[in-house]
Amino acid sequence: MVELMAPNAREIVCDPACGTPGFLVSVAEYLQELKDSDGNYILNAPGNREHFNKDMFHGFDFDATMLRIGSMNLMLHGIEDPKIEARDSLSQDHANIKEAFTLILANPPFKGSVEKSNIAKDLTKEVNTTKTELLFLALLLRLLKIGGRAAVIVPDGVLFGSSTAHKKVRQMLVDNHKLDGVISMPSGVFKPYAGVSTAVLIFTKTGAGGTDWVWFYDMTADGLSLDDKRQPVQQNDIPDLLQRWHSRVAPDVAVKDGSYKGLPLLDQNEETPKVERGGKAFFVPKDEIQANGYDLSINRYKEVEYAEVEYEAPKLILQKLRDLAGRTAVQFNVNAQQISRVEIPLPPIALQEQFINFYIRTLKCLENYDNGEKATNKLFNSLLHRAFRGEL
């Protein structure tokens, strides 16, 4: 996600549910290796290093252990003064931060609810729900500056949920801001901790709309097995995802030669060209998303390609069936003379006798065990009977 968002040296980055905090560490590592066009490290430019150490990194969590681990983790990665704060990001008590960050990366908790009385009132005003995955999207819009960007992991239900709150959140992103991309991920990417299907939403806060086209990508492999072991595998869509994301061009600015980046246009109307949707990545226009109830699931728009299969004429197929039905069944017989010619390998006589003796001894052992078990049961019942009669 960090490489998708490609942060610069002047960002103010936040993770409102930071935990350890992996996203902020990844941003630090990304910037420490980033160079300008002249080959110089960008953090060596005037003012960038000080901003990196004191003002860039912000993380919120309400777990004291996570706060300590997070602060230590960032300092070990070269950040002198990370701003890791004890905050319940969704609560009314911590609703005082607004329009403060230029970039938010988050994997907030989902598949849960919070007590409605504790939720910040400005969030429930935007989206009336107790579901954390929806509240966090409203929170991100509050925390971002105008022009700020966010990449957030959400469960698939956010993309197509039919409740009023689900539709309201999707409508906010599409109509009031700029929804840039939806990346569908396979269900095993968070195993063994969770097996739910998830997606990444990428958007820009504008407050005045801006969504013209939404870019979709169907990621089916991330370089690790999708079971609980998560072992390295050859299939990995991430390099392809990054290359396509950073080279994407919306169809409305495509060349006017009947193609878009080498793909044939299905509709050559200059205002709304429609690109083939059979591949892993494609654009969908805003009006089509609106017409589909703001559904953001990739399967709603992806066109599945089926291999063409040619079948014989129905009359010919029926005739072949009649021919098969008219044939007499053939039964194969094997006589005793044929069986007598079959050679069956046997071990030497001495080995056969050893096996027979072993088999006999085994039967005797089983017989003795059975007799002993019967005698034990008989003795136990007798003792139990005498105990109840008070004779012991």
TrEMBL record:
Top-level taxon in the UniProt lineage: Bacteria
UniProt record, GO biological process: DNA restriction-modification system; methylation
Reaction equations catalysed: a 2'-deoxyadenosine in DNA + S-adenosyl-L-methionine = an N(6)-methyl-2'-deoxyadenosine in DNA + S-adenosyl-L-homocysteine + H(+)
Pfam families noted in UniProt: N6_Mtase
DNA-binding in keyword set: no
Keyword S-adenosyl-L-methionine: yes
Entry EC number(s): 2.1.1.72
Family matches, as SUPFAM superfamilies: DNA methylase specificity domain, S-adenosyl-L-methionine-dependent methyltransferases
InterPro entries xref list: DNA_Adenine_Mtase, DNA_methylase_A-5, DNA_methylase_N6_adenine_CS, SAM-dependent_MTases_sf
UniProt keyword list: Methyltransferase, Restriction system, S-adenosyl-L-methionine, Transferase
Gene3D superfamilies referenced in this protein's UniProt entry, alphabetically: Vaccinia Virus protein VP39
Gene Ontology MF terms in the entry: DNA binding; N-methyltransferase activity; site-specific DNA-methyltransferase (adenine-specific) activity
Residue ranges of domain DNA methylase adenine-specific in the record: 1-305
PROSITE patterns reported in the protein's UniProt record: N6_MTASE
Name of the protein described by the UniProt record: site-specific DNA-methyltransferase (adenine-specific)
Lineage of source species: Bacteria, Bacillati, Cyanobacteriota, Cyanophyceae, Nostocales
